[in-house]
Amino acid sequence: MTATHSTRMLILGSGPAGLSAAIYGARAGLAPIVVQGMQPGGQLTITTDVENYPGFKDVIQGPWLMEQMQAQAEHVGAQMMYDQIVDIDLSERPFRLKGDSGTLYVADTLVICTGAQAKWLGVPGEEHLQGKGVSACATCDGFFYRGKKVVVIGGGNTAVEEALYLTNHSHDVTLIHRRDSLRAEKILQARLHAHPNIKVLWNKAVDQFVGGGTPEGLVGVDLIDTVTGEKSHVTTDGGFVAIGHHPATELFEGKLPLDEGYIVVEKGTTRTAIPGVFAAGDVTDKIYRQAVTAAGMGCMAALDVEKFLAEQDFEELVEA
Ligand code: NDP
pTM to 2 decimals? Predict the structure, then answer.
């Protein structure tokens, strides 16, 4: 027999956005259910050192932070489901969602916090050296490269912003781009080119990330010229891959308005185009993408849910 769970607040995703929404929702008496998804805990569970989440003087570990957030959410009454949503019907309220387990979730409100994943180049050494010099987040890891050489790969806004950000720590930043022009906004390009500590290598693709030393870490990148095919090598301590992100929104295609795959929300809120459906965290944010901003948006979503349900309850009372 198919299990059915009915809830006033269903949260999809268990990263900082989903769990913060759960903490606030539970404390508002909404008994939220969190469907944890493919990667319980989200992107932070594949990170090691976290130094920028407020509240901790010493370096903490990403997986530990997410364990704590989950424990806190459960402690205040949120229910965790180890399930993955495979089908979704947002055509009427309550919304009906089906899990991979066969479980049916019937929800008065839905908060989408399914996150995003960094895109990787898929070249040799990249996966092996993640956390040992290869990163997809300069804001998270740039601090560890104080006084060291770094490279950034990509030519969009993210790559240029990361290169500029890294000059706060490194005096030697190289942007590596596969073409001879950037797609980043002109103003960012102007700042990049004006910066004395950034150089750009044009028409270069990364062939592999090279590790060395004890303990092993990134020592360089092998490059290939995309026009001439010529091979070259750049020594570096840090390699930041900034070639875009994949928001996890396949389920919502054709059901909610998306912008470059990100769920569109009303400015300054977490409200989507469908009343009762909210979105928070990296699934709706292509700019900030931080654990703390995701957590903040999760809190906003829970407050938006509470307000929405209070208005619904009032309308029903008036009609009765
Ligand atoms: P983009 O998709 O804009 O750019 C990705 C870059 O990576 C491109 O230059 C692309 O090269 C390059 N790239 C993609 N795949 C590969 C590959 N396999 N090998 C080498 N290079 C590759 O992603 P962004 O993350 O920069 O931006 C995403 C969106 O978020 C954009 O709309 C952007 O404007 C927005 N954004 C806005 C910010 C702001 O307003 N402050 C900050 C950050 C992002 P090519 O150019 O050759 O295709």
Answer: 0.84
